[in-house]
What does this fold into?
Amino acid sequence: MGPIEAILAVQPLAEVTLVSTETSGAPVAVLVRAVHIAAAAMMIGAVAFQLFALRPALLAVEESKRAELREAIIGRWRRFVLAAIAILFVTGMLNFVFKLLAYRGHPLIGVYHGVFAVKLLAAFHAATVLVMPGPRFDRYRARAGFWLTYLLVLFALIILLGGVLNGFLDLFGPMPAVTTQPTG
It folds into this structure.
């Protein structure tokens, strides 16, 4: 039972606020957030590196060697991307749960859920574009400049949505106090 549930269970008829002032979980939340941001930074940096450094350098290499080199790089890098996707998913879900518990009862919690859903879908889409294996995706790799730029724009949207989620109470107002009338 978390601190919110404990308060509500012990004092169901008293005036309570739904925002916990307990900070014992704060170090875990900070660590989870730091790992989440580090994994995202690695992926964003890799895409920027591909767009601004690797791709232009590969254009100077003859086509037969370029495809071989690209496959060697992607083959090695895919493991890191898949690991980062897993880390982002797990830490993102933990961040969501931490915030959800703190924001439960907010009159605009549906807005939080909607923004989170859009961020999650955008992140899954970005992950799909990052790890497109096999020849059926060659047509996308042929337009790598477009797709890498697209990913950077998508990452910017994901960062913006993360900022909205993190600053939810600043944007949509504080948690209202929940009061109940004593019975009896």
Q: What stands out?
A: The longest helix spans residues 63-103. Strands lie at 16-17, 177-178.
